[in-house]
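User: I'll paste a sequence; please echo it back and then give the predicted structure.

Assistant: Echoing your sequence first, then the prediction.
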Amino acid sequence: MINSILVPVDFSACSLAAVRYAARLCGEVDAKLTLLHVIEPHHVIAEMAAPEGATELEALGCHAHGDANAAFKEVAAELGKLELEVHAGCSTGHPRDAIVEAAAKCDLIVMGTHGRSGLRHVIMGSVAEQVIRRASCPVLVVRQ
């Protein structure tokens, strides 16, 4: 039984395709949709740019947390037409680790893939592949 679906989003076209796919699936099985954006910390930049008293998320370069909230609002507007229970949040750390940790509370992960192959795949790696290897629940990978 699928009660909760996690969708990691980086707001690329392929991750938004995964959101749309997961939203349709949630509608069919009456599941809760959780969107997760992971911000990789850049400690040196954050320490130099952080105003005194800023939280770790606020200290990240380019105000990444605020940018993610604005992007989530756009996604929420698109999903608002559907009658779904949607939760969205941000996390910091390596995407693979944050996704696997968040997936402990979910029944399924639906995530997009950029579909890199060859040398680009060797150099860049694949977060989707790493999540598939480590997640405790099934992972559905959606190509754009």
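Confidence is low (pLDDT under 50) at residues 43-48, 53-63. The radius of gyration is 16 Å.
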